[in-house]
Amino acid sequence: MQKKKDKIYQSILVVAREAFLESGYKNTSMRAISKKSGIGLSNIYNYFKNKDELFKAVLAPLISHIDCLYEQHTGEEYLSLELFYSKDYQRESIETMVSLVRNFRNELRLLLFHAYGSSLENFRDVYSEKYTVVSIEFLKNIKAKYPEVNTSISPFFMHTLSSWMFTTIGEIVSHDELTEEEISEFMSNYINFGTAGWKKLLGV
Amino acid sequence: MQKKKDKIYQSILVVAREAFLESGYKNTSMRAISKKSGIGLSNIYNYFKNKDELFKAVLAPLISHIDCLYEQHTGEEYLSLELFYSKDYQRESIETMVSLVRNFRNELRLLLFHAYGSSLENFRDVYSEKYTVVSIEFLKNIKAKYPEVNTSISPFFMHTLSSWMFTTIGEIVSHDELTEEEISEFMSNYINFGTAGWKKLLGV
Amino acid sequence: MQKKKDKIYQSILVVAREAFLESGYKNTSMRAISKKSGIGLSNIYNYFKNKDELFKAVLAPLISHIDCLYEQHTGEEYLSLELFYSKDYQRESIETMVSLVRNFRNELRLLLFHAYGSSLENFRDVYSEKYTVVSIEFLKNIKAKYPEVNTSISPFFMHTLSSWMFTTIGEIVSHDELTEEEISEFMSNYINFGTAGWKKLLGV
Amino acid sequence: MQKKKDKIYQSILVVAREAFLESGYKNTSMRAISKKSGIGLSNIYNYFKNKDELFKAVLAPLISHIDCLYEQHTGEEYLSLELFYSKDYQRESIETMVSLVRNFRNELRLLLFHAYGSSLENFRDVYSEKYTVVSIEFLKNIKAKYPEVNTSISPFFMHTLSSWMFTTIGEIVSHDELTEEEISEFMSNYINFGTAGWKKLLGV
DNA sequence: TATGAATGAGTCTTCATTCAT
DNA sequence: CATGAATGAAGACTCATTCAT
Description:
The structure is a homotetramer. Chain A is mostly helical. Helices cover 75% and strands 0% of the residues of chain A. Chain A has 2 domains: 1-49, Orthogonal Bundle (Arc Repressor Mutant, subunit A); 59-202, Orthogonal Bundle (Tetracycline Repressor, domain 2), CATH 1.10.357. Chain A is built from 8 helices and no strands. Chain A is elongated and about 65 Å long. Chain A starts with a helix and ends with a helix.
């Protein structure tokens, strides 16, 4: 029984994912999901409270993955200006993004471009804000460690920077035709540009 | 008579603007506009072919303004690396944006965040692309003038840069509480960051 | 003044004709006619009581022409069985139809196929009936003149024969690609077939 | 449960049939069907994709019956000139039509006269064409079997002949007052007329 | 748990016609 | 005679959700 329940749950999830990917949140109807999955419309409501919950369930793996990435970046070891000069760090950053895209290309596209109408429609902004808060904290700590550094940076600007990161990801997932090499070149531009920018702002 | 017609046209436009601003394109119904304006629902269709046209009419001033800005930036005089060092140019850029925001704050918000469902829902991407094309042309000309400059920059990256500009504008219009001073600080960060980034990429 | 009035009247008529030909009665809106003609929508109603009257005005020349044809065929001289053997009569019949088509191709198409919604939508049936009545009269007179002839023919059948004539016309006007020669062959088939049929029924 | 579903399905069908018969396709609104049947408007869409599908469902029995008749007439046994002399064949033809009319009088009226706006509005022409194609094939085979026969007959003429058959059917179903005897007389006229016509054209 | 059935408010759009000026 | 403005009813169709079984 438990098993059966799980199977249905998974079926719904899989089908819903396909449907949402194909048409976006708003243009996907519960009926369509029901039909495609062969599971009674009202039965879906036994597994998911409503359309929005179903949508969130589809994107849950991606979002929890992203949450992980956030947490990884708040450790002590990152509190250093040398990061800006570390080729390793840059390579790692690129690799993180590339693998994110590799694993969640479709979900990212869904989340970033086709979530209108759902409670995740503001994801980008919400997470940019999250990241902004972290960054401000980071700056504060940096200031404590390196008092000579200029850290009076507009939080709004930082917000756009975070948002830009999502734009970058969005750009990649929007272009299936990009080869890994092109992505690397792209990311390299991004990192170089950003690093130079940060150095300038911090005055280091 | 002509006058009266114009009056009605304007009424619709004004009310539609308010309504769209309040609820976005998709969540604003023609019925609502009709009710709010006191103008018969079907009569609205005597003035605007359909909801989308009405929406575009509301945003027409903003968009034509933006189109102007584009054209101003394609002149010969901008073909110089010194722009990156010119305080005047930077000040001018800031002023341009600030005044854009001053004059079209609400419209910008509507266009950038609440156009889903309309034919302008991809505005940001479309105009980023427009700007990207212009930028690539610019790079080509720069290369001709200064052959030593590195201009092999990913067009995808450039696209995100253009998009980032809209993010920046969006950020400002999303925060009514920002004082002019804060905006300036913000924009200054943006310009400094961007300038440093560009210099780095171009190798100048 | 009078002239001016006439000019407008004609303008409306001309434009309405084009519009009706293009889209049929039902799918042509008064608004469209107004726009195309540049004549105020409500002003059209000063010249034509309503859409239907306008439509009938467009087709009036054709219909009065058809009415003429009817009247021509009720004369004394046609009361003879020799008609069925007269090559001249057959040639004349063909010529009548061919010239009808030549002069009113578009109107015929409009009347026969695109009058739905108008008071002429039953034209075909109405005129078939008219013709049937005439034919019955004809048969009665023939019977008086040639008592040996069998004239007990179902009026309903005669109705379909009349209707078939319109089908034939409709077929021709539906095929712009038909050459005059093909039309003649076509009509010749029609006449031969019909003549043989009539002879059989009448037993002559 | 299944039963109930079927019941509703049938209810809609029955009511829709009545409504369409009464007012034709175009002048029957889904709302009206909803009201008459007591079934929620939107619920109807759970059973029929749209108005047109509902209409086609109403006429499906008739159309599939007609399709049957077509297929029956393409057999080898019909490839003979003797058909034109066979009283049996003629009697059979009459009986076929009479029973068609008996079983589908109202549907035929609906299909032939009141389908405007639906995807079946050109039924008559479409099926006339179908029948024309079959007839041309028939002529070709006849020519192979009886080379002396004249088979150069305008396909356009044949099209009108097919169409005339529908006119004939239409005539019958338009007149409820016709007794079976009158119908037979009528059909007899039709067959005699047509047979004589065909003989003449074929020169047999 | 699962299902078929139902709901009801909502969407945009069209059109012939009339009224006041 | 002419016009701009207005009307109001009607159209097909959608969808997330709930209810009774």
